[in-house]
Design a protein that fits this description.
The protein is of the alpha+beta class. The chain has two domains: 184 residues, no CATH class; 93 residues, 2-Layer Sandwich (Alpha-Beta Plaits). The chain has nine helices and four strands; from the N terminus they run ααβαβαβαβαααα. Helix 2 crosses helix 8, helix 6 packs antiparallel against helix 8 and helix 6 crosses helix 9.
Length: 298
């Protein structure tokens, strides 16, 4: 059971943890290195996940449907536009006239536009409203609502493509959460093993402390502080490497892949560093606590 500790006693805990870290310097460096590598891998994946998520969000934002119109008057068209904008989940409605659709078709064919020769005076294209949804996940229900409106002849939005896109983005986010949790557990396991070795090396000292009446928490605190320090230092090293690497990677890749929406380094890197510091501290404390509880008879 946890008991209150005097502030002066904490000085002993920090001194004991510091002495253990210095005395086992090679083990300390190895532990910091392994924790830093684990958090570095985790951080790299988090950066990849953020950028893939940004790309997925951009693609989802571009998902839209086209409502082709029947032969209606301009007044009916204005009324239909108001009804489209009133549908829940609709972010933007844009009218495309037959002339605008024809110009886009010419641009699409480019140098091969001669295939369209002879259609200039008899434009076969239809007027349409292009509807963009607030969320790609609502395109299906919006398409169904649009199809029921009077004056809409046909609704096209590439249902199969949209569903595949949403499945891919959901899978990417799900894998990201799973790997993040897995790598965090791996880092926690590394710290727990490091503390376990320290506990084993000091088992005689701990037995004497228990024999003279030291409480369970009195024995635990130095190891918890040691795990905290290992986790924080490992997080600082990982954050520094990630900040340097991501900054230069974005500078290089942005010119080579201009169409990819890379997330700006700032404030992303500050948020990532804070997350890794908190995660490093958490897994250090939890890992050391698990090790002490499991391998000490306290």
């Amino acid at each position: 059971m946890f008991t209150m500790v005097k502030p002066r006693t904490f000085g002993y805990f920090f001194q004991s943890a510091g002495s253990s870290l210095v005395r086992n310097s090679w083990m300390t460096l190895a532990s910091i290195g392994t924790v830093a590598v684990a958090l570095l891998v985790l951080g790299v994946f988090m950066l990849l996940a953020v950028n893939i998520g940004a790309m997925a969000a951009q693609v989802e934002a571009q998902v839209e449907l086209t409502a082709y119109l029947a032969d209606i008057s301009s007044q009916q068209r204005s009324q239909l536009e108001a009804e489209l904008k009133a549908i829940p989940g609709v972010a933007e409605v844009t009218f495309v006239s037959r002339e605008e659709a024809w110009q886009k078709l010419l641009e699409w064919y480019g140098d091969n536009r001669h295939f369209l020769a002879g259609w200039e005076d008899d434009n076969p294209l239809r007027e349409a409203f292009v509807v963009r949804a607030e969320s790609a996940f609502r395109v299906g229900e919006i398409a169904a609502a649009v199809a029921r409106l009077r004056g809409v002849e046909e609704v096209i939005y590439g249902r199969e493509i949209v569903e595949q896109l949403l499945s891919i983005t959901r899978a990417v986010r799900g894998v990201g959460i799973g790997l993040t949790a897995g790598l965090a557990l791996a880092a926690m396991f590394i710290i727990a093993n490091t503390i376990r070795i320290t506990v084993f090396a000091r088992r005689r000292e701990i037995s004497i402390m228990r024999y003279v009446g030291a409480t369970a928490w009195f024995v635990r605190w130095p190891f918890i502080i040691e795990g905290l320090v290992l986790g924080l230092i490992g997080a600082v090293v990982a954050s520094s490497v990630l900040a340097w690497g991501y900054y230069f990677a974005v500078r290089s890749l942005a010119a080579a892949i201009p169409f990819w929406p890379f997330v700006a380094p700032w404030p992303l890197l500050q948020s990532l560093a804070l997350a890794l510091l908190c995660l490093g501290a958490l897994i250090g404390v939890v890992g050391s606590g698990m090790s002490v509880r499991r391998y000490l008879d306290v």
